[in-house]
């Protein structure tokens, strides 16, 4: 991961969970994360307005809104713990943190280049395919108890970053990347098909 992303991931892994509040209906402005014009968005999960820098695309996939409750439960996370941690600096990163019984995760969609991330991560990661989509997976660059899986998209990448350091978790911890490709294979079909 780039230094900026690595720091962002580390910060997101330290953030506490919070329960989603009452839902409200929101009309999305042009250029927002979702392609849907009107939808029910839980309070506190409203997407930011994107202003991508030159050479970068709008990120059309919002992990906090486009990964449904049933999918989060299927991969072991509690939908009520969703929390936004977006980063709208040089690149756009729509980030959703979520907690489960065995691990925490940051689910990210960014318009950063897959090739750049692979160049940085290749000494600790291996190339793979998730439902036929190009990806790589390996230990997190900052937290050796975490795993990072990056999937290529036409706008950049979708990242699943997990952390096994859960208070009260059994000892010893399971290998950091156990089950992470399987989680990604459940998320991958939700990424817009043109991506």
From TrEMBL:
Residues 1-23 form the signal peptide. Keywords: Signal. It comes from the Bacteria. Pfam families: DUF3558 (PF12079). This is DUF3558 domain-containing protein. It comes from Antrihabitans cavernicola.
């Amino acid at each position: 991961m780039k230094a900026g992303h690595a720091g962002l991931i580390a910060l997101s892994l330290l953030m506490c969970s919070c329960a989603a509040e009452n839902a409200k209906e929101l009309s999305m402005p042009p250029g927002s994360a979702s392609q849907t014009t009107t939808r029910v968005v839980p309070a506190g999960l409203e997407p930011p307005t994107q202003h991508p820098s030159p050479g970068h695309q709008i990120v059309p996939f919002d992990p906090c809104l486009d990964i449904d409750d049933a999918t989060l439960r299927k991969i072991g996370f509690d939908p009520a713990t969703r929390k936004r941690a977006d980063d709208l600096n040089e690149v756009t990163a729509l980030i959703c943190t979520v907690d489960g019984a065995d691990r925490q995760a940051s689910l990210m969609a960014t318009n950063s280049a897959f090739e750049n991330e692979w160049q940085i991560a290749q000494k600790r990661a291996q190339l793979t395919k998730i439902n036929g989509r190009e990806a790589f997976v390996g230990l997190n660059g900052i937290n050796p108890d975490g795993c990072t899986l990056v999937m290529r998209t036409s706008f950049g990448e979708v990242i699943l970053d997990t952390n096994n350091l859960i208070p009260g978790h059994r000892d010893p911890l399971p290998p950091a990347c156990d089950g992470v490709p399987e989680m990604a294979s459940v998320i991958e079909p939700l990424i817009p098909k043109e991506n």
